[in-house]
Design brief:
It contains 15 helices and 26 strands. With 457 residues, the protein is of the alpha/beta class. The strands form 6 sheets. A 6-stranded mixed sheet has the order 1-2-3-4-5-6, with helices on one face. The protein has a 6-stranded mixed sheet with strand order 7-8-9-10-13-14. Strand 7 and strand 8 form a beta hairpin. It starts with a strand and ends with a helix. 49% of the residues are buried.
């Protein structure tokens, strides 16, 4: 049995090519939208992709099932409860997919979502126990899938958490200790709160060390998995709905059009948003008025989806040669409305200094001075709830970046404002969002809470 894992650090997303060498067939599990790597690897290994299996309707990225089906003729597979609006094979609990010697069994495991499944992989027809299980967002390394993401579309976190409790104990935890566990996400994903940096484990290790698999009542489990979850970025509901629909396919070869400053102005006048993908330090040194700072050097797509509406047209300001990467990474979350990028952006800004502003970034010492001398300053902590356990800077208001857009009316745009996060990446995005919405005096904290804590120790 061939198992290839594909891990995207920028989305903490794992997908898989699972193949049978003897039968020459394979499946792809939870694919990202840019599918060229799966297709190339299957060809290199002499495998024909026959099925694309989705463990559930993902919220954190736009999946590539439609692209893979169009490119390879593979059949799309979901669990029986999936409410999809395109041709798909819906398999009930206990169903099998045969690849030759390799066999895959569907395990219905509702909880993270109602239609969630896991996939147990047997490496021969004679095998009585699976070799591996692909757990989607049901079981992570060190955590389990959050049950609250669908609260806005008719499912309560309490009901889904109870389903998850039963799925884990009646299905997943019955698997032997030696079974390898391959989840759909790792550390940094907003689909859970305590995910490990490891991307593979075993059932024995998870039974021993995963907090959510320890002996406890259903009530205790529900309270534990619904508490302290990170704020979901604004695009999650959009992607969860988009993943069930028939939609346009991604053309990975489509280049982002180059734009002049006049083109950019016309697009902005029509409602487009400028995203500056350069590192935060470069953005602070000089950027176009009104631009949002979301650096390509971090979790770019996730945080772009936190500060930009899914239906917004987007103009990119990029370091030379990075615009195509930005285009693809936005497409991975279904943001297909990139109208172009500003050609020769640095030269354009040098030629039009009246169109450029700097961003204020404070050292910890400067911030301490402002706190002492400016009582009217409002401090905004844009970390997620679980991150607050290490401490906070008082006084501050907690508004995670994923929810900042929807809570702008709770802040006073006339007051001086300082934004901080854990390390300084998100705060640049959050501060730029506030500036773009009319806040007059906004700074962010260099190094974030980590720098604050380091100076205090």
């Amino acid at each position: 049995m061939i198992i290839n894992q594909y891990y995207l650090e920028c989305l903490s997303h794992a997908s898989y090519l699972v193949g049978d060498e003897d039968g020459g067939t394979a499946v792809v599990i939870d694919p990202r939208r840019d599918i060229a790597e799966y297709v190339a690897d299957a060809e290199r290994l002499g495998l024909r992709i026959t099925h694309v299996i989705e463990t559930h309707l993902h919220a954190d990225f736009l999946s590539g099932h439609l692209e893979l089906a169009a490119a390879t003729g593979a059949e799309i597979v979901f669990g029986a409860a999936a409410p999809v609006e395109f041709a798909a094979l819906k398999l009930a609990d206990g169903s099998w997919i045969d690849l030759g010697q390799v066999r895959l069994q569907i395990l219905e495991t509702p909880g993270h979502t109602p239609e969630s499944i896991c996939i147990a992989a047997y490496d021969s027809l004679a095998a009585t126990e699976p070799t591996a299980v692909f757990t989607g967002d049901t079981l992570f390394i060190g955590d389990v899938g959050r049950p609250d993401l669908l609260a806005s579309v008719g499912h309560t976190a309490d009901d889904l958490a109870r389903s998850l409790y039963r799925s884990l104990r009646e299905k997943v935890m019955t698997l032997p200790d030696g079974v390898k566990v391959y989840p759909a996400h790792g550390a940094g994903s907003a689909c859970g709160k305590n995910l490990s940096t490891e991307t593979m484990s075993t059932m024995g290790e998870q039974r021993a060390f995963n907090y959510a698999l320890q002996p406890m009542s259903e009530e205790a489990f529900v309270a534990m998995v619904t508490e302290g979850q990170p704020a979901a970025p604004g695009y999650f509901v959009y992607d969860a709905i988009k993943n069930r629909k028939d939609r346009d396919l991604l053309d990975e070869s489509r280049p982002a059009p180059a734009m002049t400053l006049a083109d950019l102005d016309a697009a902005v006048a029509a409602g487009a948003v400028i995203i500056d993908t350069r590192p935060a330090a470069d953005f602070a040194a000089g950027h176009l008025l009104g631009a949002l700072s979301v650096g390509l050097d971090g979790r770019f797509a996730e945080y772009a989806g936190s500060v930009v509406a899914p239906d917004s047209e987007i103009v990119l300001v990029c370091d030379d040669g990075t615009q195509q990467e930005a285009l693809i990474r936005l497409a991975r979350i279904g943001f297909d409305n990139v109208v172009g990028y500003l050609d020769s952006a640095l030269q354009v800004m040098a030629d039009h200094p009246d169109r450029v502003e700097r961003a204020s970034r404070l050292t910890v010492e400067q911030f301490r001075s402002i706190l002492a001398s400016t009582p009217e300053v409002q401090v905004v902590d844009i970390r997620n709830p679980g991150e607050l356990d290490v401490g906070v800077i008082a006084p501050s208001v907690s508004l995670p970046l994923g929810t900042l857009v929807s809570h702008l009316d709770s802040l006073d745009p006339a007051r001086p404002t300082v934004v901080y996060c854990a390390g300084g990446y998100r705060s640049s995005a959050g501060a730029s969002l506030l500036r773009s919405r009319g806040f007059d005096d906004v700074s962010d904290l260099l190094g974030g809470y980590s720098a604050w804590q380091a100076l205090a120790s």
